[in-house]
Specification:
Strand 7 and strand 8 form a beta hairpin. The N terminus is likely disordered. This protein is mainly beta and 337 residues long. It contains two helices and 21 strands. The strands form five sheets. A five-stranded mixed β-sheet has the order 18-1-21-20-19, with no helix packed on it. The chain has a four-stranded antiparallel β-sheet with strand order 2-3-4-5, with no helix packed on it. Keywords: Glycosidase, Hydrolase, Secreted, Signal.
Length: 337
């Protein structure tokens, strides 16, 4: 017996539905997969990764950290087990240039058919490229703002203006940033005007405890009318972890999801290391969800999330810029799919 057209339509619609986002998360982690190379550069840590997957190839942009300062690196691979063999392309050799550049975010801006790399350089900066696989093709930095916006100057205290993140809906592009002082900021400009015309920022989220809303914010679209916000916090044990919120609008009110130390998005208490892998880090720090849809909407699937993050030997210490951050992968184990 053949099902009715109505039943087929209903089944197809059900198949397309986005699975419900869980109220708690569980993960399994790899060991450290990528670290600095012994190539004379003197890099101490590889950190702040942004990652997209295109036809089975993973494209990664990250910060290179050392006592003398920060810059950016690009590499690509097809197998996480061999990620550390990937060739590093240091972006100070591209028109992005030397000097302070850090915390990159990459996405494809479909209206202009250009890749954008957003990063911090003391301001909120960006470069563009027609081909993500051509590291020499990035343009020289341009800034979103003429200087540090007044609202950030008035609220930053002893913090730093860091970790810029862009996401667009059908009408606007939104730029998020943090101040290491408990404030998450958001600006916007019309989709047709991007990257020009960013508005004065507003405070999108804040916490009296600056460590509870610290830095490394990232925002994704989940489904047709839902957004997921992740922000890095510093826990009561001194280790880094991620909290999460959801909203029906990028510029809407953010509702807590898994947003506590007891029930985090990703923290040492909900991450189990793979069989045979030593617990090499207690921090689940600055990273992002692996995206296979690479455009400016930053749409992700809730099926078995993968989060590419920075971790560090918990016994390490010393100067912040010289800490030995490495990159690892956590994979969701309680997915509804």
């Amino acid at each position: 017996m053949r099902p009715s057209i109505g039943l087929v339509t209903a089944l197809c619609a059900a198949t397309r539905q986005t699975p419900a986002i869980p109220s708690s998360f569980k993960w399994t982690s790899s060991g450290p997969l990528v670290g600095p190379k012994n190539d004379g550069r003197g890099v101490a840590g590889i950190k702040d990764p942004s990652i997209v997957e295109i036809n089975g190839t993973y494209h990664v942009f990250a910060s290179t950290a050392q006592s003398s300062g920060y810059n950016l690196v690009y590499f690509r691979f097809t197998d996480f087990a061999k990620a550390n063999e990937a060739t590093f392309y240091y972006l100070d050799q591209s028109p992005i240039g030397t000097g302070y550049r850090a915390a990159p975010q990459v996405f494809y801006f479909a209206p202009q058919k250009l890749w954008y790399l957003v990063y911090q350089n003391g301001n909120a900066a960006y470069s563009t490229n027609k081909d993500i696989a051509d590291p020499a093709g990035w343009s020289a930095p341009k800034n979103f703002y003429s200087g540090t916006p007044a609202i950030i100057q008035n609220n930053i205290g002893d913090g730093y203006w860091v970790d810029m993140w862009v996401i667009c809906d059908n009408a606007n592009c939104h730029l998020f940033s943090s101040d290491d002082n408990g404030h998450l900021y958001r600006s916007q400009t019309k989709l047709a005007n991007f990257p020009n015309g960013m508005s004065e920022p507003v405070i999108a989220l804040q916490d009296a405890n600056k460590y509870a809303l610290f830095e490394a914010a990232c925002v994704y679209r989940i489904g047709e009318r839902k957004y997921l916000l992740l922000v890095e916090a510093i826990g009561s044990d001194g280790n880094r972890y991620f909290r999460s919120w959801t909203s029906d609008r990028i510029d809407g009110k953010w509702q807590g999801l898994a947003d506590s130390e007891a029930n985090p998005f990703a923290r040492s208490n909900n991450v189990v290391f793979e069989n045979g892998v030593a617990a090499w880090t207690k921090s689940i720090s600055h990273g992002e969800v692996i995206r296979t849809q690479t455009d400016q909407t930053l749409t992700i699937s809730l099926c078995k999330l993968r989060f590419w993050y920075q971790g560090m030997d918990p016994q390490a210490g010393g100067e912040y810029n010289a800490l030995p951050w490495r990159l690892g992968l956590i994979t969701q184990t309680n997915s509804a799919c």
